[in-house]
Amino acid sequence: MTLTPAELTSAVSGGIGTSPQRPDGNLKVRGEFAYASDLWHEDMIWGATLRSPHPYARIVSVDLTEALKVPGVYAVLTHSDVPGRNLYGLEHKDQPVLAVDVVRYQGEPIALVGADHPETALRAMKKIAVVYDVLEPVVDMETAVDDTPLHPGGNLVRHVPIRRGAQDLTADVVVTGRYEVGMQDQAFLGPESGLAVPAEDGSIDLYIATQWLHVDRDQVASALGLPLDKVRLTLSGVGGAFGGREDLSMQVHACLLALHTGKPVKMVYNREESFYGHVHRHPAVLYYEHGADHTGKLVYVRAKIYLDGGAYASSTPAVVANAATLGVGPYEVDNVTVDCYGVYTNNPPCGAMRGFGAVQAGFAYESQMDKLAEALGMSPVDVRVRNAMTEGSVMPTGQVVDSAAPVAQLLKLVQDKPLPAGTSSDIRELPGGVSNTTHGEGVVRGVGYAVGIKNICFSEGYDDYSTARVRVSMVNGELAAAVHTAACEVGQGLVTIMQQIVRTELGIERVTVLPMDTTIGNGGSTSASRQTYVTGGAVKAACAAVRSRLDGRTDIGSEVIDETVEWRHRATEALDPVTGQGNAHVQYGFAAHRAVVDVDVDLGLVKVVALDCAQDVGRALNPQAVVGQIQGGSAQGLGLAVMEEIQTSGGKVRNPSFTDYLIPTVLDMPPMSIDVLELADPHAPYGIRGVGEPPTISSTPAIVAAIRAATGLALTRVPVRPEHLTGT
């Protein structure tokens, strides 16, 4: 007899649809969870990195003499000590492990020090003498293509055109705008850290906080000149990621020092170095033109989008594709002209961050929809509902949306929520808070709406898959299961979801998740809201293979039933390079926000009073985790709206610290009323839809729309600063 999942789970708790306690939850709350920065080895030494102080310069000479004289120093390495290929990168291998003859951004690694104590390593690092020929940096994304070429192929990383319908139409009502999005940091609390341990046979083990173990391994092996089986990676405790750990940071550096010295090497960045050591969200300049008829129906949308990729490509090509293909938003438009450009500059490298290109476009197209509503004399919600995408709508790429697209429903849900009470007399609830800047005088309230669209999983024909192994055996007289994947748990709750899936599919309550490492096949990146979909699909499929062998048995004696499955979602295809047409995406996610803000118009201070959200998640496998993801994504959107920006001048970072780079605290986040829709996607495991990114897209423009409503100002740039509101 073979039991169905419904029959199997009748006797167990903690399956899908419930919110079991996270296995890492208590440890994290008590401060006992072991993060990568807590790694330790009895005989380890410490690594440090010398970084360029200049955004753009030629390296004339590097003198290591004095650094090597410092007592306790084991090694000082430069590019000449890289035994393999001194280039790496996610999509283009254009970034040196250690700079050779030129540095292209402030903070580029030049040399490494290994020493018996972190302070010793820092002292030695400061004694490395580098002579630079400082060059004029390229910093303007709009003119970069025609500026000094920073790479052999020029400064254009990628151009994605989208052409659909007529290209030369006019309309009854036309609105245009130029918008800017600042450079946002992922601001994860756990800094880059890891431990490299050399083996006697010349191989290396790296314990690392990352988002993608196998791609890290491949790049590390290439730089070390080692075969893949000589480089083993194991995931260590990750203190947040949000895209900032998808690229290499200190992975190769720690391994180089370990192999050179024969000792385990630990590297931990301080907060300032972390700002230089990982990619950020692409700053953007966006030009839009929307044309509509008198009823508010969109006739055409035209856009030109510039994304600043900084010194190296990272994931810029994919970010460009997202900004282009999603650049019109969740609206039906028959006639579309979009050109999106990603460029090299001497600004800090930019790559993946939650929302991945859709955030920048979302701020612009939602600002345009508000401007269109005003021009038409319509409400912001009505003009959006008038043009809202539905299931069966056609994207600007020609792709048919073949699962739920409840855009109008989401907007109406947030619109119908009760509004918060009027402006408070409690200073803690007013702009400026306990700084006592106001008691309500000069404070005005505004309400704003926004909705967004995000692709889920990897796109454009990428072979997107995950591998899962499920093993069942008898332990103390009862069935127990173990799950092994290389999919990275970065705090999002994947470990819990995998346990829930196994309990549901096998009816086994005792489920252990084994350490994530490269001894099993690729799990793909923890990005693109893909892990529950793809790794969840792999675990589900592996469970089905195990279940077919269990055949309903509850006692298997000494037998171990073990199945490994490589699972893929449905295929996508590359965009046509001329028209941008093609079925590029797997799935789309939608979220809507209503923001209520109080603004002190005299001081330019903003208090977000409410930030309500409605989102379709397909099916909530873990309802509590879903709400947590919506809250977290909304918090990052709030940060981009009113406070978060890496400020640069001439390519130099002005605020590489949490003193000057501000992120929302618990006091900045308002109450959130959240509606979770479960409109199953028939193409996805359990009908799920990726959750983590959509709320980041619509939260920012909703907040800015509310500030506009309060002040009457145009506000075409985020984050909104006090001087934007006061004119000072």
Automatic annotation (TrEMBL):
Residues 1-24 are annotated as: Disordered. Gene3D superfamilies: Aldehyde oxidase/xanthine dehydrogenase, a/b hammerhead, Aldehyde oxidase/xanthine dehydrogenase, molybdopterin binding domain. It holds the Pfam family Ald_Xan_dh_C. GO terms for molecular function: iron ion binding; oxidoreductase activity. Residues 30-136 form the Aldehyde oxidase/xanthine dehydrogenase a/b hammerhead domain. This is Xanthine dehydrogenase molybdenum binding subunit apoprotein.
